[in-house]
Amino acid sequence: MKGLVFRGKGDFGVEERPKPQVVRPGDAVVKLAKSTICGTDLHILKGDVPTVAPGRILGHEGLGTVESVGPGVAAFRPGDRVIISCITACATCAACQKGMPSHCATGGWVLGNTIDGTQAEYVRIPHADTSLHRAPAGVSEDGLVMISDILPTAMECGTLNGKVRPGATVGVVGAGPVGLAALLTAQLYSPMKIIMIDVDENRLKVAESLGATHTVVSGPDAVKRVMDITEGAGVDTAIEAVGVPATFDLSQEIIAVGGNIANVGVHGGKVDLHLEKLWDRNISITTRLVDAVTSPTLIKLVEAGKINPTKLTTHNFKFSDIEQAYSSFAAAAANKALKVIIDFE
Ligand SMILES: [Zn+2]
Ligand SMILES: [Zn+2]
């Protein structure tokens, strides 16, 4: 079979690899129908993620058909159409029992990281019973791929950790795919205002079409604009969806008294914490790696039409053109790219 292989910093390409097999009783092998590229994959290519060894097939998001299952798999059978979770969960270790499978002792984020991932014709999924979800029929599969990672990430690390409440004001710093997914999930909780902040005016236009009540172009007067919109109070929830010092700083500057800064961004360097300004402001700061525990609920919400994740996808590429898909996604602003779907069928 073919897979997209990380060969080392800045070096990757499609290679011929042996088709994965069931190794442990709980494994399933899934034939991919759709995959996608994540910002995390770009970090890996830059050499920012040392756990990814050269030779690894990338990808932690996807949807496909179960090809074979080990004797320990009870919930899935060959032929089942499934969504692959970016988080592999054993369901029995201490972390899983705390509801934190992101830190599962024998799982967590392993796909396209410490084991071969989903940018390939086939993938082996450990702990299949608790790491796959049945794909509902009659729902756009391009949308369902967003259940693999960005929708639960936005929901858990952003909306839920940020305690978005009815009537509240929310600021989302960063209108990339995850920031826009946070915009979709935050609306489930009926905030009064959702302010999207980004440098890219095209993404802000998309945000308006997805329900943002206000947009702010990132720049020297961004804080003032947010303060004007919130009548000087700041936002009750600041969702940091980029992962660089400037956006974390901005989140600290716009947070209201009693507010919650929910960090979603993947940070590669240190940031300054302005406790000299925040110590008496009754705020909370949360961090989280997605646990994907809200995925079953999100699937129902997509099925019911309460969330339409197809609005987060902008491009489709055939798997044979995956290297071109990477170039398009890497130059996202120039190509007006949000999520890029890879089609195998
Ligand atoms: Zn991802
Ligand atoms: Zn576990």
TrEMBL record:
<dbReference type="InterPro" id="IPR020843">
    <property type="entry name" value="ER"/>
</dbReference>
<dbReference type="InterPro" id="IPR036291">
    <property type="entry name" value="NAD(P)-bd_dom_sf"/>
</dbReference>
<feature type="domain" description="Enoyl reductase (ER)">
    <location>
        <begin position="10"/>
        <end position="342"/>
    </location>
</feature>
<dbReference type="Pfam" id="PF08240">
    <property type="entry name" value="ADH_N"/>
</dbReference>
<dbReference type="InterPro" id="IPR011032">
    <property type="entry name" value="GroES-like_sf"/>
</dbReference>
<keyword id="KW-0862">Zinc</keyword>
<dbReference type="InterPro" id="IPR013154">
    <property type="entry name" value="ADH-like_N"/>
</dbReference>
<dbReference type="InterPro" id="IPR013149">
    <property type="entry name" value="ADH-like_C"/>
</dbReference>
<dbReference type="Pfam" id="PF00107">
    <property type="entry name" value="ADH_zinc_N"/>
</dbReference>
<dbReference type="GO" id="GO:0046872">
    <property type="term" value="F:metal ion binding"/>
</dbReference>
<comment type="similarity">
    <text>Belongs to the zinc-containing alcohol dehydrogenase family.</text>
</comment>
<keyword id="KW-0479">Metal-binding</keyword>
<protein>
    <submittedName>
        <fullName>Alcohol dehydrogenase GroES domain protein</fullName>
    </submittedName>
</protein>
<dbReference type="GO" id="GO:0016491">
    <property type="term" value="F:oxidoreductase activity"/>
</dbReference>
